[in-house]
Design goal:
The protein is built from 13 helices and 13 strands. It is α/β, with parallel strands linked by helices and 309 residues long. The protein has one domain: Rossmann fold (3-Layer(aba) Sandwich), CATH 3.40.50.720. The longest helix is centred in the middle third of the chain and has 18 residues.
């Protein structure tokens, strides 16, 4: 059986990898820091709506990757280049990352794009919660920018056996672009507990304008919601999931993905002559939040609006 190696086994990598391993797939988790040490020493404490599971998923290093492995990148987008630096250039990789920017760092190698809608949270070193119900989430796969690399059908079936909604698309890019639009609210929710809805929508509209100028397809919101569902984000162990990966990264004091997500919109706008002032402002605000070590919800709605003006 083909082994699946998750590079950057945080909430997404460890959560999905854990369920795959529990369903019988050969899995290796690669994680660093206190989280990696906890996975190696104590195993994965996986919290699910139906109850916890303690899983002893094998843990290793990037040097343990074999040419026959299916490598899944679950790192933050800004860590992409470093994560694949030691892999052979012809080794296929699956990206379980947010946004479009990571594909620039993967140019020249076989890439399977993963469009993920999997609400996950790393609560503590070695402790991961998956809050999706009735399934842990939806994962769509396809060769980037289109076509198939080869392992997609096998991997999708393995994901389905592990409990996920998984599909294969020969034209995955419109789904990845649609998912990026949903991610553009993440920094707002990290910085403000109740961000003004009109401000979020205006920021997303700038990205839509870039896609229109580029002449590329984006899956409509209604079709996106219908295909990933039905799925609700529920409380796990009585704790509701508040915000997404950017808010959780801010709480841990980690680097934020704002530049990867919104910065790509800014660079696309500059290339095509499309104004993106709100995305520019948000990138700068995220840099300030990291430098000054803000806590989640640091700004009131009025303060956020003033900072973005």
């Amino acid at each position: 059986m083909r082994r699946v190696v998750f590079l950057g086994a945080g909430a997404i990598g460890a959560g999905i990898g854990g369920l795959l391993w529990d369903s019988g797939v050969d899995v290796l988790l690669v994680a660093r820091g206190a989280h990696g040490e906890a996975l190696a020493t104590h195993g994965l404490d996986l919290r699910l709506p139906g109850g916890p599971r303690h899983l002893r998923v094998p843990v290793g290093r990037v040097e343990d990757v074999r040419p026959t492995d299916l490598v899944v990148l679950a790192t933050m987008g800004h860590d992409t280049a470093a994560a694949v630096a030691t892999l052979p250039p012809d080794q296929p990789v699956v990206t379980f990352q947010n946004g479009l920017a990571p594909f620039d760092d993967l140019a020249g190698r076989p890439v399977i794009a993963g469009m993920l809608y999997v609400p996950a949270e790393r609560r503590a070193p070695g402790v991961v919660a998956l809050a999706g119900s009735p399934s842990p989430g939806a994962i769509f796969l396809g060769g980037w920018p289109r076509g198939l690399v080869g392992p997609e059908p096998w991997f999708a079936e393995a994901l389905r056996r592990a409990g996920f909604r998984a599909e294969v698309f020969e034209d995955i890019a419109p789904w990845v672009r649609a998912k990026l639009l949903t991610n553009l609210g993440g920094t707002f929710v990290a910085l403000c507990d109740a961000p003004p809805r009109d401000l979020v929508e205006a920021t997303v509209d700038e990205a839509r304008a870039c896609f229109r100028a580029e002449g590329v397809e984006v899956v409509p919101d209604e079709a996106f919601d219908a295909r990933i569902g039905p799925m609700a984000v529920v409380a796990v162990d009585g704790l509701p999931r508040v915000g997404g990966s950017v808010r959780h990264a801010l709480a841990r004091g980690d680097r934020l993905e704002t530049e990867v997500l919104h910065g790509h919109v800014v660079r696309t706008g500059e290339r095509l002559g499309v104004p993106t002032p709100l995305n520019v402002a948000l990138v700068a605000l995220a840099e300030r939040a990291m430098a000054e070590r803000w806590r989640p919800g640091h700004l009131s709605p009025d303060d956020l609006r003033a900072a973005m003006a």
